[in-house]
Sequence to fold (655 residues):
Amino acid sequence: MRTLEEKAREAKNKKAALGPDVDLDTFDVRAEAHQRLQNLGQVGQQDRDRLIQAGVDVTEAGRSGSYLQKDATAVYAGAKDEGVEVIPIKEALEKHAWAREHYWKLLSVDVDKYTARAFTDLHDGYVIRALPGSRAFFPVQACLYLEKQNLSQNVHNIIIAEEGSELHIITGCVTAAHVSRGLHVGISEFYVKKNATLSFTMIHHWAEDMMVRPRSVGRVEEGGLFLNNYVCMKPVKSLQMYPTTHLVGPGAVARFYSLLVGHPGSELDVGGRISLEADDTRAEIVSRAITNGGKIIARGDIIGERAGVKGHLECRGLILKGGEIHAIPELKGRTEGVELSHEAAVGKIAQEEILYLMSRGLSEDEATATIVRGFLSVDIPGLPEGLKEQIDQAVDLSQKSVL
Amino acid sequence: MLQIEDLQVHLGDKEILAHIDLEINAGETHILFGPNGSGKTSLLMTIMGYPQYRVTAGKIRFKGEDITHMPVHERAKLGIGMSFQRPPSIQGLKTRQMVAICGGKKEVPVDDLAAKMNFTEFLNRDINVGFSGGEIKRSELLQLMAQEPDLLLFDEPESGVDLENIALIGNTISRLLERDLKPGPEKTCKEMHKKRKRMGLIITHTGFILDYVAADKGQVLYHGVLACKGNPIDIFRQIKETGYEECCRCVL
Fold:
């Protein structure tokens, strides 16, 4: 069998199946090490303001743990809840056999040059693990912060919700105010063990000239629930991701929700794939895309491998001020008795809705803003109230830039 | 008061209202009768200011202001409100938020108002999404209760409402139009009527609403022309007996 090193070497120049190709050589791999922090309170005011936009609170109020990475350095990792472990991945791989057992197991190193890069030039990343039967009341927060201009930040994350545990994570990727160009390569492996619940809410906050290539795969065992929420409302040059989840145990459920805004000059190619591989598994993929002149490709793919499985895909797009939305919903039934459905709609705001709100006293602009806000407000069952507020906040903060 | 003078309206290329003259004084409620397609909804939508109803001649004045070409939201701010027959649903906008929006700058006691309309359980649902016909009516009235307009336009407020809720709808409209003011030791009936300022224009097919709202006048709209004006109860009886055929004679 080829080693990870061999695979990475062979895939070094392998273009990705989707998205514009990125010339990796135009980005720096090395970044100076940042000083490690004793606690998040030591984060400077300027950085705080950026972090808060991605849902990261340096006071750690209402958090079970935190991880903060600046460029290539894990500057802080710690858990407040005894049922949770938050460890930088390099440290975890060195110290813990269980971490190594979950490293590059769901995802192959040679998928493309980005996975290869994340292996050969790994900076760091987080391992967040909920111990068996643990129920962390508050979410764990993680942030990948990019401070160095033109850096290729290479990150690998492993998230494990052990048997019977419940874990909520809010994670933000943010660039410093002065950073305009950079590359973010992020590998994530999600393990939702038997009867565990994992919610993972990711808020991206990039810059105009950022290239972003996340690669993530999840695996949900019997009775497990995986909620994967994604919010990207700020400009980015090119974002391409197609997170995939395998429901391998009976009764496993996965739900993906994404809110996307495409600004002029941005290209977002965001998908979600769930494969229903065991009895009674369920999948739901919901995406809401708005463009103000950017290009958005909203993909969705549900694969039914067993009789009786159910999946639904919903893909809605609004074109506000030019741009393009390409919805590509796909369903693959591979046996009799699967129930898969999708609805996709791309259009503009209905004049009738605007007038209805105007008849209640709102101006045309206020009415439009209200409808857009409603469009982006998706009920996510199973998400704790606090996290829902975080998403609402992120949407509110970004909404001004939408209109 | 509302004054409509020689109003002509086109929808697309078609003339749908011709030479409408209508006056509603402060405190008055009028009932608008007419067969399907006669232009009743169009008249209400034109008063509300929906732009697809293009005024080609004539004037609409409200509270002394010429509102003929005023945008919808300015009319709402001036005190015109409408209960729509088939309002659009808006995904993600909760009924609770919508009711609050109706109040404008006022603080709206949303929960109290909703309790009055048996509508509490709908507050956290997206506005009009999956509402039945009767639920839409209650939602529309709830919004008007928050909005408190001076001129209220009702487009078939009782259609689709079950018998259980018909009294609720009727009494609410009566209250919205200040028809429920009762004489007391302080004020006589006449004084109370004088206090009444709210105006109403109600489209009805069934006439149910007449059991709850003692309207001042009835109007029959036929083929885009106001054909008859009179006591609403008399008109309703006549229509029940002879149908709109009889109205036809007055128009021609």
Q: What stands out?
A: The interface with chain B takes residues 350, 352-353, 355-364, 367, 370-371, 373-378 of chain A (CB under 8 Å). Chain A has a mean pLDDT of 93. The helical segments of chain A are 4-10, 45-53, 89-95, 97-100, 113-120, 351-358, 364-375, 385-402.
